[in-house]
């Protein structure tokens, strides 16, 4: 009885909450509509027109028509409205750009204006209020953090130095597959993700976190990272109607805070452990044992204001490396393996190259990697067809400007549709075919790299906000793939096919996880132990 009364009153409470929410959305939308109409009338007649775009419904704009696979839908819309168009999404004006020449206008010609991000509620919380690199405001703090990451932590010397840590984790994964998974179907994306996150954790904490503590942190982090990425992908009413953000209608803000508190504990205990270690024991001076965190803490002791970070900034930076670097790498590995299983001839060519360069009685080592040209071309071709960031994290102009002759208002959310450019037949020959040969470097002056200088190929973005982790991502991708492909033969389970369909998200994933069966490839069994 008590319970049914409680249920009834809780139901009424829910109904009331829903009614208030709808009322608030309508009020916010009416105010916005009013302001927009007023703005339209007061616009300078000499100002360039806004880009074309589909009509939406009053108040909500195009929101009710948005599907889940935004990169596909945005590509279809560009066939109707052209390479730059607008969409009204609640109170937000979105601009979608999908041609190399217009992308160049954004990320090269007007790079400073577009060097800002448009933060969602979840992103703001998970980035410590935008104190990181990915979501941080373009300015001195962002510049200092990028400098520490790019030119110091990810310098060639540092990356060469911590190769031993990467190797230990990759060899551990190979041994694990050898001892437990031979001949059985495994989820290759999960396998790539575990190896990537364990390797990343190892590089962050160095050789100092041992035994149980280390593996606990790894698996705890894996769960949290997955949940964080899911949250960053969820459409949130508060982002389309910022006036409603304080009500946190879908609870996304509070979930983000909960997840942040879990990572806080992990970071705090790792920082404490490093500081204690530095006080009580010999601190490793060689790169092989030294993790990025120790590097950051030591860096701060040098009192060089050009590279000193606050503890909050350090945590935000660690978060960027864990969240921005692991899923992207693991998913790219999964896509490459999917394409190779779909194209056995290409798989054969990659494995022949591995046999020639590495040989059958060694495991892959760092020094082999620059010689694996065919595998490099396969990774590049896969990143063309399946870029991890299909629309890139949206940019946000700091002032009103003009792109392609159209007015782009300050504060709009600008999507660069890399997925569509990478598949455009007027840009690429037979773009839907998987042809790694197009990336084989025959003319060194005209080859493709990841640096975003050719605007038809942008898997790591371009301009000031280009991926800051490219040196590590490049090494991890080729090392993981070369190791998996050199140590094992891979086949699909009976009566299954590779599904290459994708779904939009913070990172563009496969709809169906890749399941494959490994068998031994090397005859010297001691190599797997
Ligand atoms: C295959 C792996 C990776 C892919 C495909 C990838 C892709 C991207 C893309 C597309 C962007 C947005 C660029 C833009 O807006 O123009 C980005 C940004 C970023 N990535 Fe990566 N990334 C990868 C690995 C990593 C790793 C390993 C790290 C860290 C060690 C990292 C750190 C970052 C950071 C900090 C940013 C923000 C840059 C800024 O806004 O200034 N990424 N990444």
From TrEMBL:
The chain crosses the membrane at residues 20-38. Its cofactor is heme. The keyword Iron applies. Keywords: Heme, Iron, Membrane, Metal-binding, Monooxygenase, Oxidoreductase, Transmembrane, Transmembrane helix. The keyword Zinc-finger does not apply. Heme binds at residue 467. InterPro entries: Cyt_P450 (IPR001128), Cyt_P450_CS (IPR017972), Cyt_P450_E_grp-I (IPR002401), Cyt_P450_sf (IPR036396). Gene3D superfamilies: Cytochrome P450. GO terms for molecular function: heme binding; iron ion binding; monooxygenase activity; oxidoreductase activity, acting on paired donors, with incorporation or reduction of molecular oxygen. Pfam families: p450 (PF00067). PROSITE patterns: CYTOCHROME_P450. Belongs to the cytochrome P450 family. This is Putative cytochrome P450. It comes from Rosa chinensis (China rose).
